Amino acid sequence: MRAQSASGRLLKGYAVLLGVVLLFLGILFYTGLNLSFENSLHSSLESIALDLKNDELAHPQQKSSVIDPKEEFPLSPVSIEVYRFTAGKPERILFTKNMQDHRFGHSDPGFYIEEIPFVSKEDESGLLVYRAQKNGIDYLIKVAVPINKIDDTLETFTALLVFFGFVIFLVALYLGYRAIERVLSPMRNITETAATISQSNLSKRIELPKEKDEFFELAYTFNTMLDRLENAFNQARRFNASVSHELKTPLTIIRGEIDVALIRERSSKEYAEVLHSVLEETDKLQSIIETMLLLSKSDTRALKKRFRLVSLDKLVGEAIDQMRPSAVAKNIEFELRCDKVTVDAEPTLLRRAIVNLLDNAVKFSPDGSVIKVVLQKTRKGVELKIVDQGPGIPENLKEKIFEPFYRIEKKWETTTSGSGLGLSIARWIAQLHNGNIYVTSGEEGSEFVIRFSQ
């Protein structure tokens, strides 16, 4: 069963709402017009009753008489009965001929609707019962007129109301359909564009609507998500290509060493040299594989469970001690300034991040230089700065150096060794600890900062 589209549901709801509104307005107009007619009729009948009181009852009637049919009244035809109360008994003293054989049943003052015998038994009349007093005598005046013309007018109005209401309904429904289609067109554009996007076609983007409404925000958010996905896929492709290259190189060396060793008989010393070379390349392979496994870990909950309060200044000291032999080999000194800082962390991972940053500083610092290490508390949290005197990092490479296997020496043709994973691991560890790594650099020297938020 095919699901109904959003535009169909909206149009259906709009049609129901529109029909209810038009029906309500039609009933309201009909009721208002009917009440207006009744009020107007009531006022006219009351005017006739007052005329009778002021003119016909000005002089006491001795006997029952017929009102002159040529008498001009606001309404015509009109039926009139006037009763005089003598000793509490009503006596009809005035009437019109068309009421000669009929008596209106109502005697209480007010406005009533009842049948009109002089027009049609099926029609109705408007009747006003009016009590008056003239010259100390009580009178009861009954004035009635046929309302068939009013009924005809109401019927005509109802027919016109239904016709024009139906026309308005169709026109409003069409305009509503066009408006819904126009409003939902950005959503349809988003859907069609999303359907054409695949892993091999992530560069396509949704055209942003002209109006900055919710659909604009949705399209913008979707494009931003595609940007992140495209970057992630591109990084994954580069990562896979780099992994293949990094694993291929030591495997090729190992195979070459073994092939050379098997060409002919060799001495124990030569075999030992081959085994040492193979062991060195195997260590590189093991290091790359372990690092890749560390970067691929997504179960951060298990790592978070190992967090505990540790002395960050102590970890910094241990990392410097670990890197001191490499620094001494290049006659590099560490200038250390540390505050006493305690953080919630996994000590082994955090020490590794600091070691990786120090290792990067030692690799790229010239011989005989000084590496500054500053640990301090700030208003925003805790900062660990590592400042070297190596060559600066171009602005367009400041983010690329944190990508796995990206080695900046390929651009500068230096001879530094490494797999290009150290900074990637350092940033991953910093982010795991609710922090991040930032780098600033000039023409010479770079400053790496691990900033932990409080």
Automatic annotation (TrEMBL):
Residue intervals of the Histidine kinase domain: 242-454
Catalyzed reactions: ATP + protein L-histidine = ADP + protein N-phospho-L-histidine
Pfam families: HAMP (PF00672), HATPase_c (PF02518), HisKA (PF00512)
Entry's EC annotation: 2.7.13.3
Principal location: membrane
Top EC class for this record: transferase
Gene3D superfamilies on file: 1.10.287.130, 6.10.340.10, Histidine kinase-like ATPase, C-terminal domain (3.30.565.10)
Domain called HAMP: residue spans: 181-234
PROSITE patterns xrefs: HAMP, HIS_KIN
Keywords: Kinase, Membrane, Phosphoprotein, Transferase, Transmembrane, Transmembrane helix, Two-component regulatory system
Protein's name according to its UniProt entry: histidine kinase
Naturally occurring in which organism (per UniProt): Hydrogenimonas cancrithermarum
